[in-house]
Design brief:
This protein is of the alpha+beta class. The protein has helices at residues 13-23, 64-69; strands spanning 5-10, 27-35, 41-48, 55-60.
Length: 94
């Protein structure tokens, strides 16, 4: 069994895509128009880390309750642990 996607609630789709793709080097796997249960237009946006594996479904906050959860989706706990391999000859900085 594998975990295919983990939902990550974001403030804005394009802002989140920019962060994950341009800053962290993730791959934009899908960005398709969709419709919420309420009938509101939304997007199905998936990014994956360069090494593949579990993707993030970037879900734009819908409503006050979800907007209040931005930045605090897991309470005081850490949401993700990421490991980045350094290029050969690169040095880690503290």
């Amino acid at each position: 069994m594998t975990i295919e996607l983990v939902t990550f609630v974001v403030r804005d789709y394009d802002e989140a895509i920019n962060f994950f793709v341009n800053l962290l080097g993730f791959t934009l796997v899908e960005d398709s128009p969709s419709v919420a249960e309420s009938g509101r237009a939304k997007r199905w946006v998936v990014v994956r880390p360069p090494s593949g594996g579990t993707g993030l479904l970037l879900a734009e906050a819908d409503g006050d309750e979800q907007r209040r959860a931005l930045g605090n989706q897991t309470g005081p706990r850490c949401l993700l642990f990421a490991r980045r391999r350094l290029r050969r000859g690169a040095r880690a900085h503290a």
